[in-house]
Design a protein that fits this description.
The protein has about 260 residues and is mainly β. The chain folds into 2 domains: about 1-160, Jelly Rolls (Sandwich), CATH 2.60.120; about 160-255, no CATH class. Helix content is about 5%, strand content about 40%. The strands form 4 sheets. Strands 2, 4, 6, 7, 8 and 10 form a 6-stranded antiparallel beta sheet that branches. Strands 1, 3, 5, 9 and 11 form a 5-stranded antiparallel beta sheet that branches. A hairpin with a 2-residue loop joins β6 and β7 (about 90-95). The two termini are about 15 Å apart.
Length: about 260
């Protein structure tokens, strides 16, 4: 399992907007959004991309970091956070709702690496512009406001067993990880294995390691079930003169 970098929202109020100066949560700069008891605000525009959340991988959990403080010393304010899927607020809050009781700025995290708020997510759901968070401030005691300096979100995902990366499209950038060609199971030499197509209907699968000639079994995930080039092949690259498709079979390794 890997985790994305924290990202801040870039839009406010797509579902609801009740906080004062809500745009001030975009950066940690001591300019704050003011949330009163029972008031809510939604945020979106986190800007996650396909390489970051691995299209077709499992989405395991979400964490929201909130940097905030109380407007006075005699108060206890809690922030409840829901996820927004396709522009719709989901019914269950993220776990580990955090509270603030002092005027000292502090960043606290709700959710977890396994918290999906009871919803099944796909990478497309997270990339969607309608994906976001819905925040409500709840006063537990006192009459103080919550002053929110910054909100950030990150996503925990399970990458596929390998990534299909095609020449001309560039390698995905995964913070904390590098992508390398998979190793031959026999000689442990890293190599690129290519799939050649004499036509869009035929798959010619190389079957031996170019270094030790051992049989290999690396097969393009998109073609395991049916050796036909799908019309919507992710990151497809066509060499016009020969209509050859190339896959470089990669794996993730921690930096």
């Amino acid at each position: 399992m890997v985790v994305t970098l924290y990202k801040s929202p870039t839009t406010s109020g797509g579902v609801i907007q009740q906080w004062t100066t809500p745009q001030n949560v975009y950066a940690t700069d001591n300019a704050v959004a003011t949330a009163g008891n029972g008031l809510s605000n939604s945020y979106a525009g986190f800007g996650f991309t396909a390489p970051e959340v691995f299209l077709c991988s499992a989405i395991n959990g979400f964490e929201v970091s909130c940097e905030a403080k109380n407007s006075g010393t005699s108060g206890n304010n809690r922030l409840d956070v829901w996820l927004i899927k396709g522009g719709v607020k989901q019914s269950t809050t993220l776990t580990n709702a955090q509270s603030w009781t002092t005027t000292t700025d502090a960043a606290k995290v709700c959710g977890s690496s396994s918290d999906t708020a009871g919803v099944v997510w796909t990478a497309n759901d997270v990339i969607d512009p309608g994906f976001g968070i819905y925040c409500t401030m709840v006063t537990v005691s006192g009459t103080r406001n919550l002053l929110v300096d910054q909100l950030r979100l990150r996503v925990y995902v399970t990458p596929p067993s390998f990534l299909d990366v095609f020449p001309g499209e560039g390698d995905a950038s995964i913070p904390g990880y590098v992508m390398r060609a998979k190793k031959c199971a026999v000689c442990s030499t890293r190599a690129y294995y290519a799939h050649h197509y004499s036509s869009p209907q035929r798959l010619l699968n190389p079957s031996r390691c170019p270094h030790c000639s051992s049989a290999i079994s690396y097969v393009c995930k998109a073609h395991q079930a049916n050796p036909v080039v799908p019309a919507n092949h992710t990151w497809s690259f066509v060499e016009p003169a020969t209509t050859v498709f190339w896959n470089r079979f990669m794996e993730l390794e921690p930096v």
